[in-house]
């Protein structure tokens, strides 16, 4: 189930398909009258301005749109006898700006620009709050994307790190259990350098938390961890013993976290960071 918006205490589902973002206008219609959502959407669709808006949007965004059927609907729009459902509009014109979904999370969904137009028809106030909430959701998704990119960067660097361990630290005669122990020891070398505890120690201190300490790391720690993994692989290739590597990595972690924290403080106060 996709993320939900909350506008004036009304929960509104969202949906994405083939790169198009949709908002559930059935949920939006519930704000006006929860018992007559189909009638509300139907009244909106039979409006001539609505038909023209939908048709222009499709002509701009949908190469498979049927303009002949569109012209037929436009000619009838506004007549007392004219009725139209989202399903009829989609089937007759090949429209992609509206989606009619069945099932538990069903309803009529509209591409975000069309949804904002529907919101205007319901209430100007509702539209403004909807836009604000939608922007908040996009900002939240962008922040999460940034975190995921840094987390994946750390994971990719860890592959380089483990390859260096396999090539330079693991003799051919070791058993798989011994190999796993060496990998774990190198992972904890990084954990100690950055977090000051091993993975086992962290789990004992955080028994109710899900995942591991790296899953709970902040963005600065993940950036630093990615750098430490690359540096540790370099130290291993140089043949530096583990105890010396731990000291060097800890010094690097302190230095990098100090710089990152200073930069964050400068950004928070809208001042340039001290280059020294």
UniProtKB/TrEMBL annotation:
Family matches, as PROSITE patterns: KILA_N
Pfam families: KilA-N
Residues covered by the KilA-N domain: 1-137
Regions crossing the membrane: none
Coiled-coil region: none
Protein name: KilA-N domain-containing protein
